[in-house]
Design a protein that fits this description.
Layout lengths: L10 H14 L6 H8 L7 E5 L6 H14 L4 E5 L2 H15 L5 E2 L4 H4 L2 E5 H10 L9 E4 L11 H13 L3 E6 L5 H8 L1 E5 L8 E7 L5 H11 L6 E4 L3 H14 L11 H8 L6 H11 L2 E4 L5 H12 L5 E4 L13 E4 L3 E2 L2 E2 L2 H8 L12 E7 L2 H8 L16 H13 L5 H8 L3 H4 L1 H4 L9 H18 L3 E4 L4 E4 L1 H11 L7 H13 L7 H11 L13 H7 L6 H13 L5 H8 L6 H21 L9 H10 L6 H6 L5 H19 L7 H11 L3 H11 L5 H13 L25 H4 L15
Parallel strand pairs: 1-6, 1-7, 2-4, 2-5, 3-4, 5-6, 8-15, 9-11, 9-12, 10-11, 12-15
Antiparallel strand pairs: 13-14, 16-17
């Protein structure tokens, strides 16, 4: 192994490299690292390092970061997703210590020596001229290969364009990149392609799946290679992850988790103590050593399953391709169950990322394995495997009309409001760089600038026609109109990938509907319908459908989702009770509710932009209640008391309602605040109040009881009731044969203890 002293670098650079190595406990450099340092990545200028997974690219990026810091420069370290921000911040803090400030929150680009952020947030900050992002000295581009994908590729491309517009130095690291010279030319970067092979080799196999179902082929492949686990199975569709995991579990191939693990209790703790039918199915699979995850599973459940996989408690995991990036777990064998998508082969770059999840260097395997299931295994092997595979070139993501219109609108909204200024920004984009290659606009012998001028003219004309912008002929410029400003602010504050026409549709509804006529149900239905946030529901039982019809909506997926959220989730009924009353599987409702809450919050910018609209008084409360799943009278308790979630509130309310009729001489239908204060006043002291709650109410311990007591002492409950008229359009009365969650109100499951017993 090389050491810094063996490198062809300056003494100062040797010291920088040694400092990073010492912080991480490394005693020597890998070939790729020595290759990159000898190639001059610590010298002036932009650089791009292409190297196989596990060959030490990250250390080179941290050395480049420290090299800039020692010169007094400010650096932004960019990663593809918010999930990776905290991990990267912690890794940098290992060597930054107290010498350098590492920021990842609000004001990061202004305040930190190193700002750890996503590509999207950097791009938006530069465009808006916020937080001093334009004055940064260097940008680290981690997992640069995600520029291939449509999901994050646009943000990465635009972040680089923004950096090039502001002469910010660039250092990118990538595992897969075919046209590295072209990308390097666009970035004005020196390209370093490491000759080192992957540290842990992967053996690839094409498996014939033409004569049996994919499920059966997966089962047989794992049976034939049972000693090569743990297994990670990539599936195209969410439903396939479930059905294939179920098929594997039914075979009884694996031993399952340790006997001392109570997975039922552990999972119950993650889901408010209440298990739906889907949760119980997941448990059955886990007990057989198999799990599945996909984007619709609540985050707590996904983490629970992934932790079991990391700990070796389950041996096979089926998943959608969302795990292909940044997943570093003890996978030894990858199975690509679907190498075609809608009849066409997936991209080579996608396959390389999937296969690369096997045998990560930190796991210590001598080799890994990847099995590709295909109807024509010879054709699949030639396409995907070395030495015959050929990676695709990277293509711009802003050549389609929707993306180009979004870029045009964003530029105008942030002061790049003339054709000349827009051209100046776009000149630094991959889109402009590739014009001669892809002929992105028009087929004639026009120059690139002529093509760009024509494209901008068409884009601005559409935005003018649709009322997003207006044209100022006197100064040959543009300005955003109400709709345009609302659209951009919504775009910057939401997680949904909304089309301009969808935002316009919501804007027009808000502008044309009298604010006093808008119910929370109406608002939810509009958001769900316009931004594609409906659950996949085919039918519904019970009273929901007639109640929807009474309130002006059909029992479509959008209507059912709005009704479930409004009358069940926001009324704090348990997921178990929701399933019993409606026949709908609510397992995915918590995750959907969080995304819906974020989108409802972002729509305030659209509403505020509409001249005839007014944000409803209950809007902020709606955002909170959709996220937390609580009633209006519990908002203060849930907001101000740490860890006071919907289950604790439900058990607390059930106990207080019983006490109201038996001891307090209060109507049990009173608000939670009234019940709490009535019960508090009836006890002899704060200590007795806390003791009763901690001993009698499920999920309320000593700390939570004390927090409730302090909350009552420092708050009054006379706030305006923001519930709208449809709040109680659908009520469910607790019944003895109903959900245990709604009738079990004490830790013993019996009657509440009288105060005289204390």
């Amino acid at each position: 192994m090389n050491t810094p002293a063996d490198l062809d670098v300056t003494p100062e650079q040797q010291a920088t490299i040694a400092e990073i190595m010492q912080a991480h406990g490394y005693t020597g450099l890998k070939k790729t690292q020595a290759f990159a340092f000898n190639g001059g990545i610590l010298d002036e200028g932009n650089d791009l390092l292409i190297a196989e997974t596990g060959n030490g690219k990250t250390l080179t990026a941290e050395a480049v970061t420290l090299n800039h810091l020692k010169k007094g420069n400010r650096v932004a370290y960019l990663v593809p997703s918010t999930q990776l921000v905290w991990d990267k911040k912690e890794a940098i803090e290992e060597w930054a210590g107290d010498t350098y400030s590492i920021y990842s929150g609000r004001g990061k680009f202004r305040s930190g020596d190193v700002a750890v952020a996503t590509f999207d947030s950097f791009y938006q900050a530069v465009l808006q001229g916020k937080e001093g992002a334009r004055s940064l000295d260097a940008l680290i581009l981690d997992d640069f290969h995600e520029i291939y994908g449509g999901f994050r590729g646009t943000g990465i491309e635009l972040a680089i364009s923004a950096a090039l517009n502001n002469d910010i130095d660039l250092y990118g690291i990538s595992a897969t990149l075919e046209d590295s010279n072209e990308i390097g030319e666009w970035m004005n970067a020196n390209v370093h392609v490491s000759p080192e092979d992957r540290q842990t080799p992967i053996r690839e196999f094409a498996v014939d799946s033409s004569t049996s179902s994919t499920k059966d082929t997966i089962v047989q492949t794992i049976k034939q290679n049972q000693n090569d686990g743990p297994f990670l199975v990539f599936c195209f569709a969410k439903t396939w992850t479930e059905s294939r995991a179920e098929a594997l579990a039914e075979e009884g191939i694996f031993d399952g988790p340790s006997k001392d693990r109570n997975l039922r209790r552990e999972l119950s703790n993650e889901v408010d103590g209440l298990l739906t039918e889907t949760h119980r199915d997941i448990l059955d699979m886990l007990h057989n050593g198999v799990g599945y995850i996909h984007a619709d599973l609540p985050g707590t459940v996904k983490k629970f399953v992934l932790d079991l996989y990391d700990e070796g408690e389950i041996q096979a995991l089926t998943t959608t391709t969302s795990l292909a990036y940044g997943f570093d777990s003890p996978v030894k064998t990858v199975i690509v169950a679907d190498c075609k998508r809608r009849g066409e082969y997936v991209g080579i770059y996608e396959y390389v990322q999937w296969a690369g999840r096997a045998a990560r260097p930190s796991m210590g395997y001598e080799e890994g394995y990847c099995h590709v299931l295909a109807d024509d295994p010879e054709e699949a092997a030639e396409r995907f495997f070395e030495p015959t595979r050929e990676l695709e070139d990277v293509h711009t993501h802003i050549d389609n009309d929707e993306q180009f219109r979004w870029l045009t609108l964003e530029l105008i909204a942030n002061g790049w409001d003339s054709a000349d200024l827009m051209r100046e920004f776009i000149h630094k984009s991959l889109y402009y760089h590739q014009m001669t290659v892809n002929n992105a606009w028009g087929q004639g012998p026009e120059t690139k600038d002529e093509k760009l001028t024509k494209r901008l003219k068409n884009s601005t004309a559409w935005l003018v026609e649709q009322d997003f912008i207006s044209e100022d002929a006197t100064r040959e410029g543009f300005s955003t109109k109400h709709l345009g400003r609302g659209a951009v602010n919504f775009h910057y504050n939401s997680f949904v990938d909304a089309e301009l026409q969808s935002i316009k549709s919501f804007y027009e509804w808000a502008d044309e509907t009298a604010s006093g006529d808008i119910r929370q149900l109406d608002y939810l239905h509009q958001v769900i319908d316009n931004f594609d946030l409906a659950l996949t529901v085919r039918a519904v039982d019970g009273r929901l459908e007639p109640t929807l019809i009474d309130n002006g909506y059909e029992a479509t997926e959008q209507g059912i989702t709005a009704g479930l959220v409004r009358w069940y989730w926001m009324r704090n009924y348990s997921t178990e009770r929701i399933e019993q009353e409606t026949g709908v599987d609510p397992t995915y409702l918590p995750g959907l509710a969080r995304k819906l809450s974020n989108t409802v919050r972002a729509t305030q910018y659209v509403v505020e932009a509409a001249p005839n609209a007014r944000k409803p008084d209950w809007h902020d409360s709606l955002v909170f209640r959709v996220d937390k799943g609580v009633r209006e009278d519990a908002v203060g308790v849930a907001a101000d008391i740490n860890a006071m979630g919907r289950a604790r509130i439900r058990f607390l309310r059930a106990y207080l309602e019983k006490m109201a009729t038996q001891t307090l001489d209060l109507d049990s239908s009173e608000s939670l605040g009234t019940l709490l204060t009535g019960f508090y006043d009836h006890t002899s002291s704060a200590e007795q109040f806390e003791e009763v709650l901690s001993e009698q109410v499920t999920m309320i311990g000593d700390v939570t009881a004390k927090n409730i007591s302090e909350f009552i002492q420092s708050n009054d409950f006379t706030a305006t009731n923001l519930a709208t008229e449809e709040e109680t359009a659908l009520e469910i009365s607790p019944s003895e044969d109903g959900s245990t969650a709604d009738v079990a109100f004490s830790k013993a499951g019996g009657q509440p203890t009288s105060l005289q017993d204390f």
